[in-house]
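User: My collaborator sent over this chain with a note saying "see what the structure looks like." That's all I know about it. Can you take a look?
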Amino acid sequence: MQNKRPRNYNKKIGLIQTHISNNFKYYVIVTVIFLVGVVLGVLFINNVNDNQSEEISSYINNFIERTKDNASIDYIGLCMNSLRNNLSLAFLLWFAGLTVIGVFVVYVAICFRGFCLGYSISSIIATLGTKKGSIFIASSMLPQNIIFIPTIFAIAISCIRLYKSIMKDRRHENIKLEILRHTIFCALISVLLILASLVETYISTNLFMLIKNIL
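Assistant: Without extra context I'll predict from the sequence alone. Here is the result:
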């Protein structure tokens, strides 16, 4: 048993390394697009007017105060909302991979997710300051995004590979096979999105509850 577990673990790591190696250029492209979105989100917050800045700060402060006053947490509601958001994005990317304009939709979706992340981080830092903002981000955003972001990248790259394969070989039998591979891959890796939702609900939420009083 002790020898079997390391072998299985090493096999899984090897598969991940092979996947990244075979798709390295696509990972670079998707990462750059995501980072462009992050930068755009940061720039957007840095260029909002005073009224918008006050509204953003008020929203974040009110959220923290409501959380401090609310001792009970609706874990089921939080989990279902997170699952709905994560799996909806996965479905959008999967479906986009089946369309002619799929790659454009994938790039826009990845850029938008980067924008949302950059926007959120900048808003929190601007409202709470660097120290408290970093604690807030580390507790409430970091854990799930460690899983979420690589998973979404992998699905996006599967979409890009499908598009490239269809453009390269338009024979009906090969297209059906590539679509099947794409669908199976997206379905399997979406399990990680479920894990990200569970982490967000039960780990990030409780971490935030532990540090909320110092914010």
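A starting point for your reply to your collaborator: The chain has a mean pLDDT of 87.
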